[in-house]
Amino acid sequence: xxxxxxxxxxxxxxxxxxxxxxxxxxxxxxxxxxxxxxxxxxxxxxxxxxxxxxxxxxxxxxxxxxxxxxxxxxxxxxxxxxxxxxxxxxxxxxxxxxxxxxxxxxxxxxxxxxxxxxxxxxxxxxxxxxxxxxxxxxxxxxxxxxxxxxxxxxxxxxxxxxxxxxxxxxxxxxxxxxxxxxxxxxxxxxxxxxxxxxxxxxxxxxxxxxxxxxxxxxxxxxxxxxxxxxxxxxxxxxxxxxxxxxxxxxxxxxxxxxxxxxxxxxxxxxxxxxxx
Length: 276
Ligand code: FES
Fold this sequence. Notes:
Strand order of the largest sheet: 1-2
Mean pLDDT: 93
Bound molecules: FE2/S2 (inorganic) cluster
Keywords: Membrane, Transmembrane, Transmembrane helix
Oligomer: single chain
Helix content: 40-55%
Distance between the termini: 49 Å
Number of domains: 1
Low-confidence stretches: 1-5
Radius of gyration: 22 Å
Transmembrane segments: 26-46, 92-113, 159-179, 185-206, 246-269
């Protein structure tokens, strides 16, 4: 999303000495976002770099933080896409190094997250009718929105979306693999259901993306001449109204799925089996 340059407020505007006239607790939402995102990033970083408790051999549960598992340190059963990365790399290189950097880029450039972290971390501004903290916004002629480096790089979001779609296919494969029973045949456990809920929410997030909506119906001048694209655009538009919810829900389902697999792999409890 590219914004045009916007002039700083004119000196002719009313000079109000109060920092803001808002009396409500407008700071609560950005503060909650700040706390939640920080906690999530710390958890995800630690888990991605632990290099343990990410795979349950008995039921073929693989946490999404290690998918696809491409390190030579991955157990063979967890590495359906090959093990081609040396095992002994520095601890900060995750086993899923071919997916995690792209997923990070996808979320960082997402329109929903941009709104959230511009408000909660950069305070530019933290809420409507509240002065922002960026010096550029206070200097006439300096505010350039997302039209200059580095923020113009937010436009690569559409390419991250394509890669995220491919990674969602990998996550779907992991969920299919999780239909694995104790004796090697078909089986379903609570872990299978958790992996499926997670992957369905991930698809909801990926397909409700603004870039996806543009790919489906963008630049069409006459919808009636492209009924299939119009239908797909209509469906994605419905999902798109819930994009922010999918963005938050998937943070929850990703952490929950990872925590469940980690605790199971660690032996903290047994999987609740529904079939085999
Ligand atoms: Fe959020 Fe594309 S706008 S994922």
